[in-house]
Every structure is written in structure tokens, then in C-alpha cells.
Backbone:
């Protein structure tokens, strides 16, 4: 594969080889400290997911400053489980990466999570799934995988599931019978604050998805046509990068995210249908017009956590003319900086903090 003609596939191929090499690094080193095993850490090029990793690591370092955080990358769980089972201490915690992949839409990640939960079902240790969105579809495959998940998640006595919006909480609570509670907390990235008062806002930025979560929307089409007709200064961006040569490095992850957050900070207005497009706009204090996605996690997250933010606008709540007025308003403003939501505080994460701190 030529790295110049198709750099993403080229570098992803290198990462796949590196993953196989990493599997031989297990067993993990034994430690006298409390260990948190963070499973299913992604290597892919979605910076929304990478921001979740970044925020999870910050969260764990703040909540458990004396614990040793051990990262297990996606696809390596089988080798890691064999090693961990031999040295698991009573206060060790099994943690699983959060995001939007609980269900059959992103089936491979759901199956991995279920295999991890099943592997530690008989242990006395806590198994904590960071905030997730529920995505089981009303299809044969969706039903079959949901029934499998229902069985697996009912087995452990110490499994705690977290939903990142109320829509997912209701579906998890209705469909899963866990021995512990299912809790609601915001997406972990919403705990970050990346507002930079020294920024200079210059242009309008669009951040639109093109994958299977895309929801066609007539209003979105009309607004995009309006932007083209008025020849506004538009930068097309995405929360998915073209390729990531070395994403497994925490240093490179932070560098890539800081570059993306600076890009958001340079925008006068962001128009997006990506959940983390909305979240990146919020944590950088950037005005945004937000369209929904196919499974409605964007709308649900907005209504639960950002509905009091006067610079994040959910498009369905406005007419086309009102949306055009918002665009004109923000494009005429200089260096606007939005304030944090009153709905997202440290207390918003109390149940997640407690789950890690209590024995």
C-alpha cells in the first residue's frame, strides 16, 4: 500500500502489525499499587474517541492519583485477560472505554466489551463501563446481539454501566438486568475546559459526518446551499483525521487533540452533526449550530447537558430564517467566548467518581 496514495490505510496497516507485536508484551508487570485496567482504548482516527481516552485518563489520575493505570488497546483483550486474571488484586478495577459503540451499529466493539465483562464476571472486582450511548437497532442482528448483551451484563455482581444521555439510560435500564445500578453522567469529554481567551476567531467551520450515523436533513441542505450562495469564509473540518501514524502515543494523542481544539477556537461559528463536533465547540466556548444524527445521541446529549448554553443551538428548534439570522449574528462578532453550562459540574460526575473510589 502506497503511503502517499492512501496514507490512512498505509499507517493503519502499520498499526495492525504493531498490535500483533504488542500482544506478545503480555503478561503485564505485577504491581503492589492498585491497578485500573482500561480496556478497549482505540487506535483509530476518530478524535472524538481519542478525546474520550484523554478525558478518561485525566479523570482517573484525578480520582485515583495513587493508582497505576494500565492501558489495553482495542483488539488485545484476550491476551491481557489471561495475564490479568493471574495477578488481579481485590482493589483492582476493570474499566472499559466509553463512547457511542454499545450496540450493533459498531458491532465489533460491543462484542469486545461483552467478552471482557464475561471474562471477569466471577471476580469480586468492579467492572466499570465509562459513559456510553445505546445503539441496538430494531433488526434481527440488533435483537440477537441485544439478547446476548442482556445475558452477559446480568452475570457479574459488580458491573456498573454508565449512560451519557437519558435516551440511552432509559433503553439500558429497560433492556439490561444488571446486579448494580445503571447511572447517568455526561460524556466524559464534557468534563474538559479548553477555552482560550487569547484566540482570534476568523471563519465559519463545518464539521459533518459521512458514515452510517449520518442523518439526511432538508434544513441542513438548505443551510449549506445558503453558505455557498453567500460565499462565506468556510473551513471544512472533521473530528476524524485522514490518518494517524502514531496514535498509541499519549503525547501524540494530546498534540492532535490540541491542534483540533485550536481549530475550533479559531472559528466564529461551527455547524455540525457530530456529537463531538458539538462537544468540542462547547469546551472551547465556540458558538455552534447542531444537527442531529441517525441514533439521536446528539439531540439527547444536547437536551440533557447543553440546553442552557446560549451559544449552542439545536437546529430543529429553529426555522430556516432563524438559522440564517444566527449565522449572520455570529459571523459579525469578534472573539466571542462562551461560558460553561450550569448543568455540567463536578457533581454531575459524582456517581462515576464514587464508583471508582468506593470499595
Residues:
Amino acid at each position: 500500500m502506497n503511503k502517499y496514495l492512501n496514507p490512512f490505510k498505509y499507517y493503519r496497516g502499520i498499526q495492525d502489525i504493531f498490535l500483533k507485536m504488542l500482544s506478545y508484551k503480555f503478561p503485564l508487570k505485577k504491581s503492589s499499587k492498585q491497578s485500573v485496567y482500561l480496556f478497549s482504548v482505540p487506535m483509530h482516527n476518530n478524535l472524538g474517541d481519542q478525546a474520550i481516552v484523554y478525558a478518561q485518563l485525566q479523570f482517573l489520575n484525578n480520582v485515583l492519583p495513587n493508582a497505576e493505570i494500565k492501558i489495553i488497546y482495542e483488539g488485545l483483550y484476550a491476551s491481557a485477560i489471561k495475564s490479568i486474571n493471574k495477578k488481579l488484586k481485590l482493589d483492582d478495577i476493570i474499566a472499559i472505554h466509553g463512547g457511542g459503540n454499545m450496540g450493533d451499529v459498531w458491532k465489533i466493539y460491543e462484542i469486545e466489551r461483552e467478552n471482557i465483562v464475561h471474562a471477569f464476571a466471577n471476580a469480586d472486582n468492579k467492572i466499570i463501563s465509562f459513559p456510553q450511548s445505546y445503539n441496538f437497532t430494531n433488526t434481527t442482528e440488533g435483537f440477537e446481539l441485544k439478547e446476548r448483551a442482556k445475558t452477559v451484563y446480568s452475570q457479574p455482581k459488580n458491573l456498573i454501566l454508565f449512560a451519557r444521555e437519558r435516551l440511552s439510560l432509559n433503553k439500558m435500564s429497560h433492556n439490561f438486568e444488571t446486579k448494580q445500578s445503571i447511572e447517568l453522567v455526561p460524556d466524559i469529554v464534557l468534563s474538559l475546559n479548553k477555552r482560550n481567551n487569547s484566540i482570534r476567531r476568523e471563519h465559519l467551520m463545518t464539521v459533518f459526518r459521512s458514515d452510517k450515523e449520518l442523518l439526511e436533513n432538508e434544513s441542513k441542505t438548505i443551510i449549506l446551499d445558503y453558505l455557498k450562495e453567500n460565499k462565506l469564509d468556510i473551513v471544512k473540518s472533521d473530528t476524524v483525521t485522514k490518518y494517524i501514524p502514531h496514535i498509541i502515543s499519549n503525547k501524540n494523542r494530546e498534540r492532535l487533540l490540541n491542534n483540533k481544539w485550536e481549530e475550533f477556537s479559531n472559528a466564529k461559528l461551527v455547524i455540525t452533526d457530530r456529537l463531538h463536533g458539538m462537544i468540542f465547540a462547547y469546551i472551547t466556548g465556540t458558538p455552534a449550530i447542531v444537527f442531529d444524527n441517525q441514533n439521536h445521541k446528539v439531540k439527547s446529549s444536547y437536551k440533557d447537558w447543553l440546553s442552557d448554553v446560549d451559544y449552542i443551538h439545536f437546529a430543529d428548534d429553529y426555522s430556516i430564517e432563524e438559522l440564517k439570522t444566527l449565522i449572520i449574528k455570529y459571523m459579525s462578532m469578534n472573539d466571542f467566548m462562551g461560558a460553561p453550562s450550569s448543568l455540567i459540574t463536578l457533581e454531575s460526575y459524582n456517581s462515576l467518581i464514587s464508583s471508582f473510589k468506593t470499595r
In short: The mean pLDDT is 88. Residues 261 and 280 are 7 Å apart (CA to CA). The two ends are 50 Å apart (CA to CA).
